[in-house]
Write a structure and sequence with these properties.
mainly beta
């Protein structure tokens, strides 16, 4: 299933291209002893023209990379686990970023054929295009 990610380029972005990232939700620590880890973002796409203002994303699919001798090269796309996420847009190759205002949920439905079908649940008060589907078959 494809979902269109839309954005308005922040005025402080100076770059011509952007990177889209998927941010896993991490619950805030409410105890005195908190884990010392941060969930790293997944890369959805890199080098997108920033004024494009949208990207058609195959829901759940993210880029994977490997590094050899300081050279980073892409691997085949991988799928993210079900969970809550936000979207982040960054000037390509920098930490100058902006993030979505609300979380959404990626849900793995039961297995159809030999593939799992990720679906997206929109946050309350938001509209997803296309609308979330209960079942997907192909």
């Amino acid at each position: 299933m494809t979902q269109t990610i839309r954005w308005t380029s922040p005025s402080y972005f100076a770059a011509a291209t952007a990177d889209l990232k998927l941010l896993p939700y991490q619950q805030p620590c409410t105890t005195q002893v908190c884990p010392m880890y941060v969930l790293a973002p997944y890369t959805i796409a890199t080098g997108i023209p920033i004024n494009q203002d949208s990207y058609n994303w195959n829901v759940g699919s993210v880029q994977a990379f490997a590094t050899t001798n300081s050279y980073q090269y892409p691997l085949p796309a991988t799928a993210v686990p079900a969970g809550q996420y936000g979207v982040q847009i960054c000037q390509s190759g920098t930490n100058v970023c902006d993030a979505s205002d609300a979380l959404f949920t990626i849900v793995s439905q039961s297995q159809y054929g030999s593939q799992y079908v990720p679906l997206i649940n929109c946050p309350i008060g938001y509209t997803c295009t296309p609308a979330p589907q209960q079942y997907v078959s192909y």
